[in-house]
Amino acid sequence: MRSIKRREFLGLSAGATAAILLSQCSKAQTQGSTASPTLLPGRVINSQGGLLSLDLEANVQPVPLGNRRANLLTFNGQMPGPRLEAKPGDTVQIRFTNRLNQPTNLHYHGLHVTPQGNADNIFLSVPPGERLTYEFTLPADHPAGTFWYHPHHHGHVAEQLFGGLAGLFIVRGELDELPEIKAAQEAFMVLQDFDITRAGDIAAPNPMAMMMGREGPIVTVNGQVNPGLAIPQGGLLRLRLLNASPARFYRLQLEGHTLHLVATDGGAIAAPIELSELLLAPGERAEVLVQGNREPGQYRLLNLPYDRGGMMMGGGMGMGGGGMGGMNHSMGNMPHQSGGDTAQPLATLTYDGSVAALPLPQQLGRVDPLPEPTVTRRLELSMAMGPGMSMAFLFNGKTFDEQRIDITPTLNTIEEWELANVDPDRMDHPFHLHVNPFQVISRNGQPEPYQAWKDTVLVKGNEAVRIRIPFRTFTGKTVYHCHILDHEDLGMMGTVDIQPA
To answer: Which of 129, 198, 255, 401 has its CA 20 to 30 A from that of 495?
Structure first.
């Protein structure tokens, strides 16, 4: 491969379902479909007596998608998959059956559990028609948070996630018991996009879609197009957000309202942070509180345009006589807009009724800064093109090789990694590390404004992000990769083998 240039952060809990007031949406989304009447919670499976036990099946299933019928990939015939809820110390047992026509597996994104055996082991393969029982135990000190599960079979990840295979995995704990958080209504929002043919099948991507990361024109929340939810005046709404799209970014803004950030990927932050908008890159999660302190009416949750960099074709892509060079002059430089060039409504919030005003919490949790690292490393993120339309995405100039070990940390040590996006033409890459959450230390030398636990962090074009990782509890092989999943499938992944102390 020869290096070239490229250019360029909501279902309802079972206990809160009755508290959410049903509403009608005011507008249809731009796809032309009618708005769903209310945000549906979907099925919830809770742990009982310290055990979360279930059967989970991946299959092709016709499901409603806006005003159409689509043949999507589902877990247990649901879109999204059932929400799983457990507590620290619980054992998880999932009897997984693959009814797809290609191999698959499961990854428990963000969970701090062992990567060995039949746990969060992405090197496992479940062939079509086969069954595998996943089993692992959450550590007793596992943080409460919004996590999720999805396939992670290399070479099929983007396709299977774009087909719909995703579900929430909630760990309940200390944050949920804070009085102000407990008093809030709770809504889960799984953000996914789809591209389907006239026959309702999942559209195959062209090479350009794979290069940029595939996006679809049908954008959904919990499998619905522009659903509604409600809040009483004076009320407090806890929105738990997951970007389950393989490449689309969501730049979220709620008309007339401030978003109060209370948790990120790895759980609670120290105190609420007031935001006018929130960017979620693929794989990221966030929890925000919304106060019902506006005049009664309807307010749209908008996805604002976001330029995630890159060029549809052109400058920096000249291959010299062959490949894609001949397209440069006709196509020009066209940065990729995630969500298009206009604001897109994702859901509609309606005021209904009133309650005594509920306060925001003042303190949420404790995020202790990590000590100085014992090891520092640099990972460079880039792209390369070969003859014709072949392409690869790289860490330190290498594509993924399952037989190669790229990094060998030692258990109970702290490392600092500099993630350097070296593509001069700036394409954003969300970086995800399995098993061990980390803290973001700085961006281009500027300290991160607040401390949080993350497992996915956006590295923009020409940006260098420093993260600090404590390798705790578990040894064994796992991976890091770009969470634009076409990029991961095309090689932007590496293997970590955590060694005993």
So the answer is: 129
Cβ atoms 251, 279 nearer than 8 A? yes
The reply to whether 39-174 and 182-354 are identical in fold is yes
Q: Is the pLDDT of residue 138 over 70?
A: yes
Are 444 and 403 contacting, i.e. CB atoms less than 8 angstroms apart? no
Answer with the residue of higher pLDDT: 498 or 321. Answer: 498
Task: Report the alpha-carbon distance of residue 239 to residue 159 in Å, rounded.
Answer: 28
Is the previous residue joined to 335 through a cis bond, with omega within 30 degrees of 0? Answer: no
Q: What's the rounded Cα separation, in Å, for the pair 416 and 440?
A: 10
Q: How far is CA 195 from CA 71, 208, 392, in A?
A: 11, 15, 23
Q: Cα–Cα–Cα angle for 385, 210, 219, nearest 5°?
A: 155
Whether 40 and 222 have beta carbons less than 8 Å apart is answered as yes
Strands 306-307, 278-280: pairing kind: unpaired
Residue 347 CA to its chain's centroid (Å): 18
- In the chain, where are the structural domains located? 39-174, 182-354, 375-498
Q: Which CATH class is domain 39-174?
A: mainly beta
**Backbone dihedral region for residue 487 (phi beyond 0: left; psi -120 to 50: alpha; all else: beta):** alpha
Q: pLDDT tens across 218-242, in order?
A: 999 999 999 999 999 999 999 999 9
Selection from 456, 372, 445, 351 nearest residue 415 by Cα? 372
Name the architecture of domain 375-498. Answer: Sandwich (2.60)
Task: Assign 259 to helix, strand or coil.
Answer: strand
3-state secondary structure of 206: coil
pLDDT for res 242: 98
The first and second tokens of residue 435, run together, are 């098993």
pLDDT per position as a tens digit, 374-401: 999 999 999 988 776 678 999 999 999 9
Which H helix or E strand runs over 30? none
DSSP 313: B
**181, 237 contact by CB (below 8 A):** no
Compute the distance between CA of residue 97 and CA of residue 376 in angstroms, rounded to an integer: 41
CATH classification (class only), 182-354 = mainly beta
